[in-house]
Amino acid sequence: MYAIFTKQSADYNNLNQKITNLQVDTQSKLNDLSSSLLNTESNLKTLNSQLGSLDSELVKLKASASTDFSGIIEEAIKSVVTIKTNLGQGSGFFIENGGYVVTNEHVIDGANAAIILTYEGTTHSVIVIGKDVNMDIALLKIEDTSYPKLTLKDSNDIQVGEKVIAIGNPLGLQFSVSEGIVSAVHRTGNNNLNAYIQTDASLNPGNSGGPLINKEGKVIGINNFKVSGSESLGFALESNYIKETINNIYNQVYNTTLI
Which one of 1, 5, 135, 246 has the lowest number of neighbouring Cβ atoms within 10 Å? Predict the structure, then answer.
């Protein structure tokens, strides 16, 4: 009986040890599996991020390598607006988060009523923050702050010959797009400043205040005027002057800069 009991006890201890070893091995494998899953999830997030960046770069490359700006236009046009006054209409675009819109001063000059029409067809009342007649820039604001802004590019980096698009409302044809190239930079405007981009992108009445956009989807200028009676001679105020003027206007009201 003692021998039988001793053997059963030894078998029981051996079984418990095997169970313990199995539990330890199982837990170790579970830990390895959890670690592998976490690494896989991290790698998937990194891959998704890289794919998103790749998609963006492919859109830019497509715009650069051909005349197809469709990807750029699809995003940029959401930030462009039509400005209608009791005297006429022009264009503008969201310059900063918070519903801030920039346009040409001559678009609202002398008007006593104005509305902003966004790309999806919503109308908004307008608040005039300020304007600069010499630079022909006006800063407006609407109450809805949900609209995406366009980004200004450093105009010192603009290259003659690079492709551009102009978005606006020529002759009342809302949200029209025209394509061209940068013909020259630092041209002299009516204010005697060498601050204007010359472009052969088609500009007509109603384009004033709209953005001139490069292949990256960034604003390099605000469409300002064309030479009367000529074709392919449009001019846009360079983006660095836009930024400086907007900040001066905003600072006069709020004692700080906007962009």
Answer: 1
Residue with tokens 């052969």: 200
Residues 57-104: pLDDT tens digits?
Answer: 545 544 554 456 888 999 999 999 999 999 999 999 999 999 999 999
> Contact, 212 vs 153, CB < 8 A?
no
Contacts of 210 (CB under 8 A, 6+ apart): 80, 90, 91, 92, 93, 166, 167, 168, 169, 222, 223
Residue 213's nearest CA partner among 74, 96, 13 is 74
pTM given for the model: 0.74
**Which one-letter amino acid corresponds to residue 122?**
T
Handedness of CA 110, 114, 119, 124 (dihedral sign): positive
Q: Enumerate the active-site residues.
A: 106, 136, 208
| 183-229 pLDDT, tens digit each | 999 999 989 999 999 999 988 888 899 999 999 999 999 999 887 76
On whether the CB atoms of residues 170 and 203 are closer than 8 A, the answer is yes
CA 196, CA 165: separation in Å to the nearest integer?
16
CA 244 vs. chain centroid, Å, equals: 19
